[in-house]
Design a protein that fits this description.
This protein is mostly helical. It has one domain. The chain is 79% helix and 0% strand. It is built from 11 helices and no strands. The longest helix is centred in the last third of the chain and has 31 residues.
Length: 259
C-alpha cells in the first residue's frame, strides 16, 4: 500500500491562493472594471468637488487621495464572501471535505490571494493621484506605508464578509447583507471631508467608525505627521477584526461541512 503524505497547512493554503489567482488571470474583467471605476471616481471627486470643498482640485486631492483608497478597496472586500458562498452553494466544498488537506485552507487561501486585488487597485489610484497633483509630504516611505495600511485594513474587513459568506445560502445575498456594513464604513467616516466640518452629533458617530481611525492614520503617514498612538490604534483595529472574525469564519465553515 502506498503512503500518500497529507499536504501541510501551508501548501494547502498556497494551493487555494493559486486557485483564486488563476480566476483573476482567466477572468480579469471584474478587477479591470473595479480599477477603472476607482480611477474615474478619483477624477470626478477631485475636479467636481475640489473647488467647493477645499478651494481648488489640487488642494483637495491632498486630502482626498488617502480616503479614496478606502473608497476603492472596501467594496472589493465583499468578493471573498461571495466566492466562499458560491463554492459552498454549488457543492464544490462538499468535494473539498472528502479530500485529505487542511480544511480551513480554502477560506484562508481565498482571502490572502485577494490582497493582490487590493494592491493593484490601490496602486492604480495612487498613480492617478500623482498624475493630477497629489504630493505626499511623508515621501515615498510614508506613501508606501499608507498604502500597506489600506491593504491591511481591507484584508481585515474581508473576514467580516467571509463570515457572512459562510452563513448565507446564495452568493447574491452576501452583497445584499453587506451593504449596511459597507456603506456605513465608507460614508459615516472622514473619507471625503474633515471631521471638524461636521455637526457635533455626526462627529460622535464618525468617531465610532473603525474606518475613520484607519483613514486618519493613512493620511498622517502620507503627510509625514503621523503619531505612534494613531498607528497603534489602526493596527489594533485591524488585528481586532481578524481576531474576532477569522476564528468565527473557520468555526462556521467547519460546522457547515458537518451539516
Amino acid at each position: 500500500m502506498v503512503n500518500v503524505k497529507r499536504p501541510s497547512a501551508v501548501s494547502s493554503t498556497a494551493t487555494f491562493m493559486w486557485r483564486t489567482l488563476l480566476k483573476i488571470k482567466t477572468a480579469p474583467g471584474q478587477l479591470i472594471f473595479d480599477s477603472v471605476v476607482a480611477i474615474v471616481s478619483m477624477l470626478l471627486f477631485t475636479f467636481l468637488f475640489g473647488g467647493a470643498i477645499d478651494g481648488s482640485p489640487r488642494e483637495y486631492v491632498q486630502f482626498l487621495l488617502p480616503g479614496m483608497l478606502f473608497m476603492t478597496v472596501l467594496p472589493m472586500t465583499v468578493y471573498a464572501g461571495s466566492a466562499l458562498c458560491k463554492d459552498i452553494s454549488t457543492g464544490v466544498y462538499d468535494r473539498f471535505r472528502t479530500i485529505g488537506f487542511w480544511q480551513p485552507a480554502p477560506v484562508l487561501g481565498t482571502l490572502i490571494a485577494d490582497i493582490l486585488k487590493y494592491a493593484i487597485a490601490v496602486i492604480g489610484v495612487v498613480i492617478t493621484g500623482l498624475a493630477i497633483g497629489f504630493r505626499p509630504e511623508g515621501g515615498i516611505i510614508g506613501l508606501v506605508l499608507g498604502m500597506l495600511l489600506v491593504v491591511l485594513y481591507a484584508f481585515s474587513l474581508s473576514w467580516v464578509f467571509a463570515t457572512i459568506g459562510v452563513v448565507v445560502k446564495k452568493p447574491d445575498s452576501v452583497a445584499q447583507n453587506s451593504m449596511l456594513i459597507l456603506y456605513t464604513s465608507i460614508f459615516a467616516s472622514n473619507i471625503f471631508t474633515d471631521i471638524s466640518t461636521m455637526p457635533d452629533w455626526m462627529q460622535t458617530v464618525v468617531m465610532f467608525n473603525p474606518t475613520t481611525h484607519i483613514v486618519t492614520a493613512t493620511r498622517l503617514l502620507m503627510q509625514g505627521t503621523y503619531s505612534a498612538w494613531g498607528i497603534t490604534l489602526a493596527i489594533i483595529v485591524c488585528v481586532g477584526l481578524v481576531a474576532v472574525f477569522a476564528p468565527l469564519t473557520f468555526a462556521l465553515y467547519a460546522r457547515k461541512n458537518r451539516v
